[in-house]
Amino acid sequence: MTTEAAKASLIQRSDPLASIAAAAGQFNNWGRWGEDDVLGTLNFIDAAKRVEAAALVTTGEAFSLSQPFDTNGPQKGWRRRTNPVHTMTDTGVDAERGNQGFPHGFGGADDVIAMPLQCSTQWDGLGHIFDRGKAWNGRAAGDVVTSEGDLVTGIETAAAKIVTRGVLLDVGRALGVDGELPDGFAITPEHLESTIERQGTSSAVRRGDILVIRTGQYTRVRREGWGDYAGGSAPGLSFTTAAWLHASEIAGIATDTWGFEVRPNEFEGAFQPLHQIAIPNLGLFLGEMWDPDPLAEACAADGKYDFMLTAAPLPITGAVGSPVNPIAVR
Fold first, then answer.
1. In the chain, which ranges are continuous DSSP H helix?
2. 97 shares its domain with 243
């Protein structure tokens, strides 16, 4: 089957629901790790995988892959997603004036932050997206997430799991102009494989890896301003990557974009259809709004694109997503 024929078989523009149902049927991990599973593809990360990842550390150079968490972030209020609000509750001014109530000149500062859990660099948990009323592993969505939170696959279940081999696929540098893909660019399996081939053997994707996809969109918005970064047009993965994501047996995948998949989506009448396959059907952890740029510069300089990645979510009981400060160590 040609690439275009394969794409057409997955993307029926006149019938998005049929496309989603077909992909959900073909690329599905329900029951793979038992009926009680709460980790999905994180099951691909085992002790041996973490030892493999640790062996990749040769220089000790570390990179944060997180965007800032501040009021200047990308959010515009859609579905009540706002940027973080950081408030000081005790300051140096209070300490100077001696009005904190501490003895012997002791003073201090304290602060609080209020923010949606998916306002900046974050993981989507397995309770974040449903497919036709079903959550990960075929559970009824209403049995999983209630007003009390995610009672089954809350993000706290992943708190100690995400230490593994990371692989940067710098698709923007491999295929874009000046290292950036244009908004609306749909990354296909062929694009991913082409990037791997260009980058060399350290980019080979293996079971239990977490892929970090650099499109270059975050580079562009840092230069030009946020614009419609949050929810607008963006480069991202094509719906046709569903089979590749399933077959690769990766533990997770993260991008430098707001929504992981290409926007506008590839057929009318659907919203984030690849999410609808990846999370509830594959059990795949998705990271969004990561900043791979400093890491990408280092990888391009020495041609080594794999590293140890630690990216633990905050263990917020019952949460369906979490802020994260991913650290790549080379």
1. 3-10, 16-26, 47-54, 92-96, 141-144, 171-175, 189-199, 217-224, 242-248, 273-277, 293-302
2. no
Number of domains present in the structure of the chain: 2
158/276 same-domain check:
yes
Whether 203 and 94 share a structural domain: no
- Rounded Cα distance between 307 and 61, Å, is 10
SS (H, E, C) 28-40: CCCCCCCCCCCCH
d(C-alpha 54, C-alpha 308), whole Å:
6
91 and 37 within one domain: no
pTM above 0.85, yes or no: yes
Question: CA-to-CA distance for 211 and 185, rounded, in angstroms?
Answer: 19
Q: What is the mean pLDDT of residues 263-290?
A: 96
Say if residue 177 is in the same domain as residue 306: yes
Nearest to residue 170, comparing CAs of 326, 286, 308, 305? 305
Q: What is the CATH number of the domain that holds 323?
A: 3.50.30.50
Instruction: Give all strands of the β-sheet with 210-213 in edge-to-edge order.
Output: 62-64, 327-329, 306-310, 163-169, 210-213, 252-255, 285-288, 122-124, 321-323
Residues 94 and 208 in one domain: no
pLDDT band at 1 (very low <50, low <70, confident <90, very high): very low
- Say if residue 180 is in the same domain as residue 153: yes
Residues 17-37: tens digit of each pLDDT: 999 999 999 999 999 999 999
Give how far Cα 324 sits from Cα of 225, 253, 286, 313, Å: 23, 14, 12, 5
Q: Which residues form the domain of 97?
A: 85-114
Cα(first)–Cα(last) distance of the chain, in Å? 40
Element (H, E) at 254: strand 252-255
Query: Can you read off the two tokens belonging to residue 59?
Result: 């220089």
